[in-house]
Amino acid sequence: MAVVLTGVLALALDRLRRSPWGVVIRASREVPIAVDTAGVSVSVLNLVALGAGAAIASLGGALFTTYVGAVNPETFSVNVIFLAVFMPLIGGIGNPWGAVLGAAIVVHLTLNVDSLASSGTLLVSLSVLVILVLFPRGVLGFAGTAARGGTTLLTTVTKRGART
Which regions span the lipid bilayer (predicted)? Predict the structure, then answer.
């Protein structure tokens, strides 16, 4: 159920991002004076975005509680918070599918690789460092740049290595 709901939410957020409202939301972050001049209240827009984000987070918390069974302060260790913060960074920022991809990568690294289960947090930490250095916009950002034929740090390094 959580996977289906995550897919539906990511699809809805992706559609919102591509809609006129998504353009207004991004513009309110980049050029708030222009949005305010166009007659859209930036403060109201920010409150609506904050409320929508809080609703999505509370839905995720409710699903997490049904998975765990009960929630107490020990449930959210530093490792869990660290993983939750860095999942979108690993997958890619600026795209709801990046958070989904980042979560899939982290879950695979921490749960499905039995030989790495004891060092899962260390592996994810190293993955975050490598991805942030090589792919500053995450895996999806790198894939999008590479698909468009753009220059990334990885293509620059490999081209320099090929010249020598």
Answer: 42-68, 80-109, 115-135
Domains contained in the chain, number: 2
DSSP-assigned states of every residue in 42-57 = HHHHHHHHHHHHHHHH
Look-up: residue for tokens 């660290």? 82
Q: Are 64 and 105 within one domain? A: no
Q: Which pTM does this prediction carry? A: 0.67
pLDDT digit string (tens) for 78-112? 777 877 888 888 888 878 888 888 888 877 777 76
Helices (H), 31-95: 32-37, 42-68, 78-91
Distances (CA, A) of 164 to 80, 152, 157, 158, 159: 44, 19, 11, 10, 9
Tokens describing residue 20: 């006129």
Matching residue, tokens 């894939």: 143
List the domain range (segments joined by +) for residue 56.
1-75
Which SS3 state, helix, strand or coil, does residue 160 take?
helix
